[in-house]
Amino acid sequence: MTTKTQHGNFFEDFYVGQELVHATPRTITLGDVALYTALFGSRFAVVSSSPFAARVGLAEAPIDSMLVFHMVFGKSVPDISLNAIANLGYADGRFGVPVFSGDTVSTVSTVLGVKANKDGTTGVVYVRSRGENQRAEMVVEYTRWVMVRKRVASSAAPDTVVPSLPEAVLAESLTAPFHIANAAYDTRLSGNANAWEDYAVGECIDHVDGMTIEEAEHMMAARLYQNSARVHFNQHVEREGRFGRRIVYGGHIISLARALSFNGLGNAFALLGINAGRHVNPVFAGDTIYAWSEVVDKQPLVGRSDVAVLRLRTVALKDLPAAGFPLRDDAGAYLPNVVLEFDYWVVLPTRLACR
Amino acid sequence: MTTKTQHGNFFEDFYVGQELVHATPRTITLGDVALYTALFGSRFAVVSSSPFAARVGLAEAPIDSMLVFHMVFGKSVPDISLNAIANLGYADGRFGVPVFSGDTVSTVSTVLGVKANKDGTTGVVYVRSRGENQRAEMVVEYTRWVMVRKRVASSAAPDTVVPSLPEAVLAESLTAPFHIANAAYDTRLSGNANAWEDYAVGECIDHVDGMTIEEAEHMMAARLYQNSARVHFNQHVEREGRFGRRIVYGGHIISLARALSFNGLGNAFALLGINAGRHVNPVFAGDTIYAWSEVVDKQPLVGRSDVAVLRLRTVALKDLPAAGFPLRDDAGAYLPNVVLEFDYWVVLPTRLACR
Amino acid sequence: MTTKTQHGNFFEDFYVGQELVHATPRTITLGDVALYTALFGSRFAVVSSSPFAARVGLAEAPIDSMLVFHMVFGKSVPDISLNAIANLGYADGRFGVPVFSGDTVSTVSTVLGVKANKDGTTGVVYVRSRGENQRAEMVVEYTRWVMVRKRVASSAAPDTVVPSLPEAVLAESLTAPFHIANAAYDTRLSGNANAWEDYAVGECIDHVDGMTIEEAEHMMAARLYQNSARVHFNQHVEREGRFGRRIVYGGHIISLARALSFNGLGNAFALLGINAGRHVNPVFAGDTIYAWSEVVDKQPLVGRSDVAVLRLRTVALKDLPAAGFPLRDDAGAYLPNVVLEFDYWVVLPTRLACR
Description:
The structure is a homotrimer.
Chain A: E1 19-21, E2 26-27, H1 30-40, H2 45-48, H3 50-54, H4 65-81, E3 84-95, E4 104-116, E5 122-132, E6 138-149, H5 187-190, E7 204-206, E8 211-212, H6 215-224, H7 235-238, H8 250-260, E9 270-279, E10 288-300, E11 307-318, E12 338-349
Helix pairs in contact in A: 1-6
């Protein structure tokens, strides 16, 4: 018998202030980008075309915001969520410097809070993860909280510490590492004529299309990010589990919803912040994902006339078209088809920047 | 309600002379090449090996002809065929300068013809699409015609304009951007001993192998090309549709047939022209594709002793081996297993160029 | 009718001393690496991160040992194993210079032995394959033997020649093209704290996790390597065959077992030699692969204090967890769930090299 294998941390292993340096640093390449395109079909021009990326002041097409997020997130799984029952939420997410092919990302997490659950067998762990490039520049950082199994039910509960989390990232704290000369952003090539000014708070957009998920697809995606959470990969075990089948990585749905949102938000080319996120129901291979978005807020960026931000709430649904913007039932509970509610800031060119 | 989403053009939206600048410019990378190889298994040496590509006068391995075609075609889908019922045919296709990884392709289409159908609910639109690289050099251009839904059945029929299309691209108009020194082309490494002279007009070749298609594969391929046609992706809708399931992108079959044709045509390393193409029957995941080719014509190229061209008719079949070269029944109708008839020019080295 | 297609060699076509120059040279790219990561989820830091690869003395992240092997192996299939009934074994495998993206590999094989089987319809062919880069440097070479069909049952049996094969590659003959400065190897980033000294001969490691295989995955992998063996791809034929379905390429299981072995052997970042390998039972899509490893031997490398080698026996299982290290029944026969027994040398950093 050996103790060389990792079985992940249990609730008792976490303490406030703990720093977790996660393995495997990952050089992101154009190969990863091609797979991400093949898996989600995103069509945002800035990430698809280096000449178009030059129009927003970048040397070449950057790595898609959510691909960066998944790479950074994936590293944290073996240390944080291998024994997790559920990924409960995200908050206070910020995107930093753009990532380009050839950059290497790594992740360090800090435990912000712990709270034993009353059932005695689980607890909630709050962690802040910071993804960095090879120059130690922040590429994305965010807080998430997960429900984790205890190793031993009888172990003593730690002092409860629940971190104070902002309801949303303040628009004035966002940075947009893009610079667009007047009229440099060509909306014929981007596929959508709408600038930032064309969106109104309260406006809801049905992203129309639906995308069915296959087992091979969600497993290839999770492995690409080196996300090793077991529930995604092992049908031999999951067949006996809660759902009888493998569960799709929640982040897969964020990427699908984001790709679908191109139809209606085609100029929202990057995420700048993540305010909140919740995986409401599990998703399985065979499910078809639809999405709609509401413009929750819109703000300028300090000192900028070329770009500005929209706060979006994007809702993903399984096997239910997004017409009518379904979300909750009359009693206020999520509809069973709702799988994701995601609240985030996106950057768009202003009319001044568009042609 | 918002009008920010694209729902595609309907028959009434097209008029002769109309120019459509398609979104999303796309930088093609070695990542795309790897996915294309993984999806189709093509083994042509020129596109697989940069040292071998040097033997035909290229600085590095070029992007496969059909991958270029799919990338250019994919961009035209949101504007031309999102509401199409069927892609009826291709004609007058020409390949231009080679594409290399790092090049960015974009597509502009011009409407050549419109013709209302007698049923009152659909019409045929003829468009010529031109794919360009970042230097505005033509990489591939072709005409296709599609049957498109009308928005309103009662709308007036436009004047019928049907463009004159050549039965085939003239061999003397083809350009071969390859140059092979005498005996530079090594047929041991290319896997096939036959030079252009070894093929005879009328010769038929059974490509022997069969390849079964999975849902994940054809969806990944179509998304890689940013081809957003809905029938490929949404099982929730298609389950209620004509066929009860997702339809494989017709171009997927062209690429499979082309990859299968390596066995028998291993030195036909690039397409120079597309004379005609027809998707005869739909293909679904689970179908196994076989292919055979007939040499319809063979021609030298003006002023060239190193390369020459074959005109091929390649027929793809589902769930039927190609032995015996099945195509039509006694009444002249396509057999139900025939899924593609594709007429095109390929370039091969001459004996002088081969060792 | 044409004779231009290849139908593969039959037993009668092989003779001792025969040299087979295999088609298609293949430039390996970062796109191939991304697909390999997406298909297997390997997390070894040296192949995942160029900055980490610099810690072992490499200019950038090298291509994973087994991806190199599969590329070299794939080329040999059309000439050696297209008509094979079974891949019987591997021996005397050595890895040479590291391969980097942009390198082009090609393969030449030499027939070492032939032996007709008593059934009169098949024979065993022993071949040694050598994979080279574009500078003719050896990247991997190995001997394998396959059972091949005879073209004609009545053909005369050749003189039997069975090559002498080593039971294992001698540790003192291995070369490790890596150089680690004292304490340069960061075990926090590699995800495993154990140096070479921490492993004991006889130690068995359960790699814990299981990975279910999908049809799209194993076909994409085999096509990526341009491995054209028909049994992997054609459901229309295989449905009538021995097993009623497509067979997963045996090498796929080696790569899955290797990726799973990261959990327990996270610092075994490259293979240096292959002693023996046997595909014990066939694997099909839907099977879940588990793995365990035994440390069979451990040896220093001549003149090296930074790295040393472990001889491992890795056993892969289908639909059976590896706890208890299942292998054979009481009568000494392989258990039906055992699919692979693979005996090989891996390189690890010593304590001196680790921090």
